[in-house]
Design brief:
29% of the residues lie in helices and 35% in strands. The chain has 547 residues and is an alpha+beta fold. The strands form 2 sheets. It has a 17-stranded antiparallel beta sheet that branches. Strands 2-3-4 form a 3-stranded antiparallel beta sheet, with no helix packed on it. Helix 8 runs antiparallel to helix 9. This is Lactate dehydrogenase.
């Protein structure tokens, strides 16, 4: 599975079958017979047609020339027919033939990924099939046919590959390729698959197809969340690789029990996301995770609006972030917590974000739109991360530090007149604009410490800063250059408030369980306050009381 996963090497069979896409190809039909019937099918015309087709048959059934003339005597291009890598008769080949007649990539890939995994689940093995649309004049040339088939597999304009390693060590590779000239699929299995592993692969059929449908949409979108929910008891790791639109867009996704990574690049820009699953004790409830993800998505929207980022690129970033940080397995969390000598407990997790540690970056493609000032580059870069450390000699003396941070760096041009579109040129009359440069930072760090099992520190330290520089030009002359800095810092230790609130909430007839419930509610409040806040004004006015 190493190397370029979407450029998997192909072994071609000696037999090549030529037929229209509508012709069914049972394995027992000979190549020559199908070729003869195919030629008859594609050269026949409706009764009364003024189109004349001339063909010469030299040396048996191999058609060497095929010329078609219209009623006006104009030579028209030779029709295309299907050249199959192998004889069909199976469900995948039938689907391949139907899809190859479609125009869009989404339609050509329709249900193909699902059918490949279902084939494996049903007991199928290695498989390779392609259908290419070859000029009839070339159909006799086996070398040309093999080149076309190789291109359909390895050099298609749109290629998607899924590589899976099972827990027993077997390797499964699936690949799909689509271009105007053909459509190809392949299954490559190395090792022996158990019935349970085949069943686990079959359960991924809909998830794989959902990912394919998203990637082949216009514009491409990420739909990977179902793929992250693979059966970890049977499947050890999963990788999805895609190259789309003649390699202008690429997507690489990896998932196993310890990490998830996603990298994409395209004309609009690039995304990089990495999630560390090695400390599953950090993961909160599904509700807590959903709340934290929703909060971060709002922060991302604010960053895009402030930095004038590309909306479609940010949408892909948000989708990737939400999908990569969701669906952390409960069983994996329990196993991880049992194996750790010092780890956050359920109460600690309420004060934390509830998310696994991560790092994420979105970088927009830069543009130089002012010919008189090419150094003024429009750009957008946003980085966000969470890092957690857990230390201490034992659980009763544990210390936890969770840091969330973000940085926005952006630059963009705006017209000085709201009703006049920005159109920068080499003449001074076009040079009426403002150039904005932004550098924002935010940080939120929570320190939790215990002494002999008692909470002695719940210190939250947060900062948010914004620096905006605006250079304004009229008729190409700099008239204003202003830099505006804003910064807010806050620091609060909630340990004392927790103790006082717990005491105040207790009465002689209040049960210990009710006291514990109140304490956990207050810890959840701390967790909400600790989520990253990039707006200095909002951070300054935030209510830090636990009441």
């Amino acid at each position: 599975m190493g190397g370029d996963h979407v450029d998997r090497r192909i072994s071609f069979h000696a037999m090549t079958t030529v037929a229209p896409l509508s012709v069914s190809l049972p394995a027992s039909v000979s190549t020559a017979a199908v070729a003869t019937s195919a030629v008859a099918a594609v050269t026949s015309q409706p009764t009364g047609s003024a189109v004349v087709t001339l063909a010469s048959n030299a040396g048996g059934n191999a058609v060497h020339t095929l010329q078609t003339y219209s009623a006006a005597g104009v030579l028209t291009p030779a029709p295309k027919i299907a050249v199959w890598e192998n004889a069909g008769g199976d469900a995948v080949s039938s689907l391949l033939g139907r899809n190859a007649q479609s125009a869009s990539t989404a339609s050509r890939f329709h249900a193909l990924g699902k059918s490949l995994l279902e084939s494996i689940a049903a007991g199928g093995g290695n498989f390779s099939q392609s259908v290419v649309l070859s000029d009839v004049a070339q159909q006799h040339d086996s070398v040309v046919q093999q080149v076309l088939q190789q291109q359909a597999h390895r050099y298609a304009d749109n290629r998607i590959a899924l590589d899976i390693v099972t827990t027993s060590g077997a390797k499964v590779g699936l690949s799909l390729g689509s271009s105007a000239a053909g459509l190809a699929v392949q299954i490559d299995i190395s090792g022996t698959l158990s019935d349970a592993e085949r069943a686990a692969l079959g359960k991924l059929a809909d998830a794989f197809q959902a990912a394919i449908d998203g990637l082949s949409a216009q514009p491409p979108r990420l739909n990977l969340d179902a793929l992250t929910q693979f059966d970890s008891a049977q499947l050890g790791s999963l990788e999805l690789h895609a190259k789309l639109d003649q390699e202008s867009q690429s997507i690489d996704f990896h998932a196993d029990s310890r990490a998830r990574t996603l990298n994409t690049s395209g004309p609009a820009g690039a995304l990089k996301l990495a999630v560390d699953l090695s400390n599953p004790a950090l993961s909160g409830s599904a509700q807590q995770q959903a709340g934290a993800i929703s909060h971060y998505l709002q922060q991302f929207d604010q960053a895009r609006q402030r930095g004038h980022g590309d909306e479609s690129l940010m949408t892909m970033f948000k989708d990737g972030f939400a999908q990569m940080l969701s669906n952390v397995g409960k069983q994996a969390s329990a196993d991880g917590q049992r194996g750790a000598a010092v780890a956050p407990d359920a109460a600690d997790r309420r004060m934390l974000s509830g998310l696994a540690d991560f790092s994420a970056t979105v970088t927009q493609a830069t543009k130089s739109i002012n010919p008189l000032h090419p150094e003024e580059v429009d750009s957008f870069s946003y980085q966000v991360s969470q890092q957690t450390t857990v230390a201490g000699r034992d659980q009763a003396g544990r210390r936890i530090v969770q840091q969330q941070s973000a940085r926005l760096q952006a630059a963009y041009h705006q017209s000085l007149l709201a009703d006049l579109p920005l159109k920068l040129g080499t003449d001074k009359q076009s040079q009426n604009y403002s150039y904005h440069q932004i550098d924002d930072r935010a940080d939120s760090t929570l320190h939790i410490a215990y002494d002999q099992g008692a909470l002695v520190q719940a210190l939250l330290q947060q900062t948010a800063s914004r620096k905006t520089r605006v250079s304004s030009y009229e008729l190409g002359k700099l008239i204003k250059d202003e830099t505006t800095p804003l910064q807010t810092s806050r620091s609060t230790d909630f340990a004392a408030q927790l103790r006082l609130a717990q005491i105040a909430g207790g009465t002689p007839d209040t049960s210990g369980m009710q006291n514990e419930e109140r304490r956990l509610q207050l810890m959840s409040r701390i967790g909400a306050l600790a989520l990253l806040n990039s707006d200095p004004g909002a951070l300054k006015s935030a209510d830090y009381s636990l009441s």
